[in-house]
Structures are given as C-alpha cells and as structure tokens.
Amino acid sequence: MADIRTISSKLPDTTPSIFSVMSRMANEYNAINLSQGFPNFETDKKLKKLVTKAMKKGYNQYPPSHGVQELREEIAKKIADLYDKEYDPETEITLTAGATQALYCAITAFIHPGDEVIVLKPAYDSYEPTIQINGGKPVLIQLKGENYKVDWNEVKEAITPRTKMIIINTPHNPTGTVLLEEDMKKLEEMLEGTDIILLSDEVYEHLIFDGIDHQSASKLPGLAERAIVCASFGKTFHNTGWKTGYCVAPEYLMKEIWKIHEVTVFSVNHPMQKAYSEYIKTPEHYLELSSFYQKKRDLFLNLIEQSRFKFSPSLGTYFQLLNYSDITQENDVTFAERLVKEHGLASIPVSVFNIDQKDHKQLRFCFAKTDETLEQAAEILCKL
C-alpha cells in the first residue's frame, strides 16, 4: 500500500538558507545582526505617508497585473534618464513581489528540462534552486581570487548548444564587487549572434561607490536586446519587508514572463505602488543613496582600521567582506558561529556561496545599520 507521506522532493539537497540560520542565531544569542541584508533604520516618512494616503484614497484592491500605469511610466523615465534606454511601459515593464519573484518568473518562463544556465559563484542563493525546479542545469563558474573577478574566457568556454541563459549580478551580493564597462562589453561581444538570454540582477544599482558608474545591461544595445533586468525598491528605499520590485525586458521576453507572473502572484501591493510612483518623481530619492551608503561604509571601515581584519573597500551594495586570516585559521562557518555565540555579532560566511565551499577566510557584514550599531559592532571586531 502506497504511503502518501513518501514524496519525491524537487529540491532534495536544499537546506535552510545561511541567512535564516545566522539571523536565528543572532536572535538566540541576542547578537548584533550584521548578517542578513536589511537596514535597521526607518523608511523615509514621506514615503510612508504616501502609502497611507494611497490606502485612504481607496487603492486597496487588485492593481493591474503588470503594475500601476503611473509607476511603470516613472520607471521607464528613470531608466531612460540613467541608461539612455527606452522601455515601453505598456509591454516591457512588470512590477513584482520583490526582485526574487522577478528572478523566479524570468527563469521559469524560459528554462526547460535539460537547459543550461551559467551562474557566476558566489551567487545569490535563489538562482540555482529555481533553475533546478524547472529541470535546468546550473553551470557554475567560480569568480577568481579574493576580489572575485570574472574570467570571461572561462565563461565563453562554458557555453554549449544547451546554454539558454547567463545570470549576472552587479553590484554583486555577497562580495560588493561591480562589473565595469569593459566587462559588459566583453559579455556583449560574447553573446552576439547567440540566442542566449541574459538575466541581470541589478537590485543594488543605486548603491555604488567611489565615483563608479553602474553598468546596467540596459545601457548596451547588444545586451539590452536579450536582457531581463531585475530591480528592487526594497533594497533601494530601506523597506525590504514591503517586497516590491520590478523587471524590464524587450516585449518578446516580457510576454512570456507575464504568463508566469499572472499564475504566481497575479499582481503586487497596490498602495505601495501608488506611493512609489509619486516618490521616484524626485530623482534625489535614489541618486543620493550612493553618498549615503558610502558614508556608512567609510565609517565602518574607519572604525575597524586598527583591527586585525584585512579588506578591500566594497564598491557597491551595502555589504563589506572582511578577511580574518590573521586572527584564526578556522573555517568561515565555524568562525561565524563562534563570533555570534562568544562575541555577540552575526555575519555571513562567504564559503557557502562558493563552488565546493571554497574558503577565503572571509565574512560578509551588512553596513546598512545605524551609526550606533556600526560602532558597537566595530568595538567587538577590534577586540578580536
């Protein structure tokens, strides 16, 4: 007799995410949480008031499936101003329940059993499971050295007739590195004449430092014609719990994404979309973020300058890698756990994102925190 409790898992090897593990430990040991990527300061009061205003005006039922018209138009204007690329708000922009849902829809829409998807490691931990759920094969390429550079020749050699998609992420989580113009041009040249789709995760596009320009896939015509670009309001405007993002893509790609979007979430939070549509009409709300977060990065690094950690300043995101090899030779998972239990500070070990858990003796710290929190964390780090 068959046992209904005997199931065949689509993700048999999946374990709880490192973010869940470290945040749970931070709560258990009452530790300062610099692990999971979320700010511990408030969203702009102006934006919260706009949400309240939208609710009071009655925007509490389903919005259009692919997003509020005004917001799609404002997103199109923003991209045109920043990257000189025109997207049609009617057919090429979709609002999603966070960028992770945009990534899920993009992969699910195009990956069939046996398709290969090139993933650059370390990588955000939703990419590979979503590929596997759809019967695809992740083709993993390790970024090189402790500064995590792309070897484009290795990427090129990994392309086969079964390659359906390449996923890039810039600015890069978890390393804080960025792809430069020369990187994007090499990628554009490599993909010319192929039918490979580019999935570009750009959720930290407005968090980029030291005068570097963000190189969106939207900027280069040879990439934009094949690219699905995913973005996040939550990462940008300090409200990750609102779970609001979007993706842009040429119409021939977007019409397939819509099919998946419609049968997963159908539409996303109406009053928040109305609020964002008003809020991003003021470009300073996103253009000033690089300066805001660079000050936090610099404060954190100045505070730990006399510590035994080694580092290269993060070029983007709100994450900073610290090398602890002058402190201990423990593997990074063990050291991260001990840092929580014995010293009250939570971080993320980087090896869990690498091929074969390659361990560079690095921990990732989130500096999207109040100055007081960063000062408390730095005091702990300087005592190690």
TrEMBL record:
Molecular function, one GO term: transaminase activity
Superkingdom of the organism of origin: Bacteria
Necessary cofactors: pyridoxal 5'-phosphate
**Domain Aminotransferase class I/classII large residue range list:** 31-380
List keywords of the entry alphabetically: Aminotransferase, Pyridoxal phosphate, Transferase
Q: Which InterPro entries match?
A: Aminotransferase_I/II_large (IPR004839), Kynurenine-oxoglutarate_AT (IPR051326), PyrdxlP-dep_Trfase (IPR015424), PyrdxlP-dep_Trfase_major (IPR015421), PyrdxlP-dep_Trfase_small (IPR015422)
Does the keyword field hold Transferase? Answer: yes
Keyword Transferase in record? yes
Q: Which Pfam families match?
A: Aminotran_1_2
Q: What residue stretch is flagged as signal peptide?
A: none
**What is the protein named?**
Methionine aminotransferase
Please name the source species: Gramella jeungdoensis
Upper classification of the organism = Bacteria, Pseudomonadati, Bacteroidota, Flavobacteriia, Flavobacteriales
